[in-house]
Amino acid sequence: MSLTTGVDGSVGGIPDLPVVVGRSDLDAVKSVSASRVTMTQLMGPQDANLFGSVFGGIVLAAVDKIAYVCATRHAGRPCVTVSVDQVDFRTPIRIGEIVTLRASVNSVGRTSLEVGVQVVAESVAGGTERHTNSCYVTMVAIDDEGEPAPVPLLRLRTPEEWQRHHDAEERRRARLELAKRRRERRRGGD
Ligand SMILES: CC(C)(COP(=O)(O)OP(=O)(O)OC[C@H]1O[C@@H](n2cnc3c(N)ncnc32)[C@H](O)[C@@H]1OP(=O)(O)O)[C@@H](O)C(=O)NCCC(=O)NCCS
Q1: What is the pLDDT of residue 188?
Q2: Which ligand 1 atom is the nearest neighbour of the CA of 150?
Q3: Region 50-54: what's the mean pLDDT?
Q4: Chain-centre distance of CA 71, in angstroms?
Q5: Ranges of each domain in the chain
Q6: How many angstroms does the Cα of residue 119 sit away from the middle of ligand 1?
Q7: What is the pLDDT of residues 152-174, one digit of tens each?
Q8: Fold of 19-187
């Protein structure tokens, strides 16, 4: 079964999988797994704040980088960051710990993609992973002139991928509504 998300972003219950979603007119279709990325790095003294844990900005830079790699893999062309949703740091990351970031495309529009990034930390010696934060990054594919360019459709194979897409569509509507209200306020001179 193949299904393209409606222009209003409406999606129903879980359909027969796999399904294809997206808003561009490209024929190209890519699976979520084709652009999934994992990055691991050791947090060193250069990453420290004054309290011996990792600067939030170091984590945000890593989030932006992995979202770039993931989005660009899916789009097959360079992408830029247009929006990052609220980021909550749930627990500090200590110097000497390993941080792992996992990114995958949740949803695609015509030229934009939502990338979900999960961040976990663990001791070098092993042990349980702590989930430190998750966030959603909206990237836009650009052409040689820096203008938004269409992205391939997205094939969803699992109920989890479908659920992520569904949730991403809700966030997309909220994001665009907020951006619209901000534009209107600016026009009103507030
Ligand atoms: C990304 C950029 C090229 C988009 O240009 P634009 O004129 O806003 O283009 P459009 O209005 O056609 O929007 C393009 C896509 O971005 C989406 N978008 C625009 N603003 C958005 C926002 N605030 N949140 C989420 N998505 C947004 C649109 O919905 C559209 O998605 P779609 O094609 O999938 O429907 C432009 O905003 C830009 O260059 N921004 C700076 C990017 C950058 O430098 N990032 C690094 C920061 S240091």
Answers
A1: 86
A2: 33
A3: 94
A4: 8
A5: 19-187
A6: 25
A7: 999 999 999 999 999 999 999 99
A8: Thiol Ester Dehydrase; Chain A (3.10.129)
